[in-house]
UniProtKB/TrEMBL annotation:
Gene Ontology MF terms: DNA binding; transposase activity
The keyword DNA-binding is assigned to this record: yes
Protein name: Mutator family transposase
Region annotated Disordered, chain positions: 307-339
Domain of life (superkingdom): Bacteria
Primary role: Required for the transposition of the insertion element.
Length: 339
């Protein structure tokens, strides 16, 4: 996205010199390679960028400077919050200028209407193609869903991106949908899931998400055969909030013992052990865990070879092991414990 914006800036910049010619009639200002690559630290990690250079053939000094990545800039602190807004408000409603001003920051130069127009045309085309791509080439076995607030408000409402990540039977993770909507709305999630189904997404084996979402009602309507799994990432954070700091590390290990168990029976035992350990002094913590006991345990009936690690994938560029989606039998669990 940043690279596309820089290229749009460069095209706009070179357009200012279209009439400048050499004595031989050639263009007076041309591209001239790139500056050394450097990293910009963003809220989503380090991003490598290369700023193009230009050369004047007429003897006049001409220098291209990017407004998005000014000289010596190493951090874009607002990027993590700005990217969802850039997508929702920039592409969805055409308010690209306002969205880019958040991404660029107050110290950067304003982007010209020409640059904005090129960016809108490019990103709208890419967005349209991405949303229409067929999903029938893979068997999607896991879905992770979450409603992510950007921390930025549009008018009086906080913007929310409804995100679905899929894992195929080769253990590869991919974004399947990123749409604006209401996190608690069944209809918002239903619209997203129906679109995925129309693009030939087959019924996944397991769906993982937080409890306070309309996603579950939508899944019942669109993919009724899919097993529901409550997100351990969210649940762990909620439980630890009711415990003192001095106990959180130990409690976290106890929670890991539950969802890392090889089968339902050892998971139930680990669950009961956690309750007995903390219910006397910290009843709110155990009540928080106990109310979602059954929705938290479906993953323990699947083979560990499917690569289930927690409530959601940690890195999209790191594949999981290949999948064997059969449920764990008592014999499998016994053999696994003895190995």
């Amino acid at each position: 996205m940043i690279e596309a914006a820089i290229q749009a800036e460069l095209s706009e910049f070179l357009g200012q010199f279209e009439q400048r010619k050499t004595s031989e009639g050639k263009r007076g200002v041309i591209r001239n390679g790139y500056q050394p690559e450097r990293e910009i630290l963003t809220g989503v990690g380090a991003v490598s960028v290369r700023i193009p250079k230009v050369r004047s053939r007429t003897g006049d000094a001409v220098t291209f400077r990017s407004a998005l990545v000014p000289p010596y800039v190493r951090k874009t602190r607002s990027l993590e919050a700005a990217l969802p807004w850039l997508y929702l408000k920039g592409i969805s409603t055409g308010e690209m200028q306002e969205a880019l001003s958040v991404l660029v920051g107050p110290e950067a130069k304003g982007l010209s209407p020409g640059v904005i127009r090129r960016l809108k045309e490019s990103w709208l085309q890419e967005d349209s193609e991405w949303k229409k791509r067929s999903l029938d080439k893979d068997r999607w076995v896991y879905l992770w869903a979450d409603g992510i607030y950007s921390g930025i408000r549009a008018s009086s409402e906080r913007l929310c991106a409804l995100v679905i990540v899929g894992v195929n039977n080769r253990g590869e993770k991919h974004f399947l949908a990123i749409e604006d909507g209401m996190r608690e709305s069944i209809q918002s999630w239903k619209d997203v899931l129906l679109d995925l189904k129309e693009r030939d997404l087959s019924s996944p084996k397991l769906a993982i998400g937080d409890g306070a979402m309309g996603f579950w009602g939508a899944m019942e309507a669109v993919f009724p055969q899919t097993t529901h799994q409550r997100c351990w990432v969210h649940k762990t954070a909620n439980v630890l909030n009711y415990l003192p700091d001095s106990l959180q590390e130990k409690a976290k290990k106890g929670l890991h013992e539950i969802w890392m168990s090889e089968g339902r029976e050892p998971a139930q035992k680990a669950f009961d052990t956690f309750l007995k350990t903390y219910e006397a002094k910290y009843p709110k913590a155990t009540e928080c865990l106990l109310k979602d006991r059954e929705p938290l345990l479906p993953s323990t009936t699947f083979r560990r070879s499917i690569g289930f690690t927690s409530g959601r994938p940690t890195r999209l560029n790191r594949p999981l092991p290949r999948f064997d989606l059969g449920p764990i039998s008592p014999e499998d669990a016994s053999a696994k414990r003895q190995s």
